[in-house]
Amino acid sequence: MNIKDELKAAVISLSENDQNFERVALEIFKFQAEQNPIYKAYLKNLGVKPSKVSHLEKIPCLPISFFKTHAVLSGTATIQHTFESSGTTGDVSSKHHIADLPFYEYLSAKTFETFYGPISDYHILALLPNYLERNNSSLVYMVQSFIYKSFSTESGFYLDNIEALAKKIEQLVNQKGNKKKVLLLGVTFALLDLIEKHAPNIQVPENLLIMETGGMKGKRKELLREEVHELLKAAFKTEKIHSEYGMTELLSQAYSKGDGWFKPSATMKILIREVNDPFSYLPSFKLGSKTAAKRNYKKTGGINVIDLANIDSCCFIETQDLGNFSEDYQEFKVLGRFDNSDVRGCNLMTI
What confidence score (pLDDT) does residue 220 get? Predict the structure, then answer.
């Protein structure tokens, strides 16, 4: 087993709140600092000596824009697929080169099942029209693997046929004796189109889970997430709308079960950096006194993501999203984007 396989085995073994996360992250950092040419050059320009980095928060994060301008790869491996962001017209798309698709499939399924139970317990109905129009969306690839793992002939994608989707939802949710739950997973503007044009007639919504993956993409007037969720809850007669946080440059996900707070997967850690200083983090229980952490948890900053699933690219990413922590620092909220960042097609929602 080579070093990369050993690191992947260590990542797979991580569980929620695992004390080994920092140790594994530091091992991967030392590997990528040497084997990733782009990250290695970035560290050199910062004057960072990898051998001197001994704490998680001291690991520099690579600006996410590098995925637009460079091939971000660690070690030598055959590229199996390239995920690409949708971006905006005339804009340069981010490209994430993937050397181990089964690794991505395994971890994404493990994450979902940690939050929601076995995928085989669901009929999965995916309303992702703008992503389906491309063949290189990481979200579509993940959902496709979920559809296979659902072992349901009812699972599938819907492009423009939202009337058929509405009827399918009615059929499955209202069907007596149906032991599977229904997961409707959709991009935000398409879910709003669905309820405006063909709102399903749902009698018993207890076995229905609605999950928005974000993205208005200029299709509609931008709305607060809370506003979108209120519209969806009323239409589907359900108490909560779930959300997924992910992007082209990440292979791990975070999920929200309806309150707007996202919980990262076992392979993901969120850090909030100072808005005006990308190399300083806001105080937290680990980065300062508990008093300072209690006082600052609501403060807004830039979101940095440590995604240990990105062993073949870069695990340490400085995003252009803004967010803050929950009081116990176990969850985070996405509040928008930096003003000078471009609109991200794969991100949740512009607020």
Answer: 53
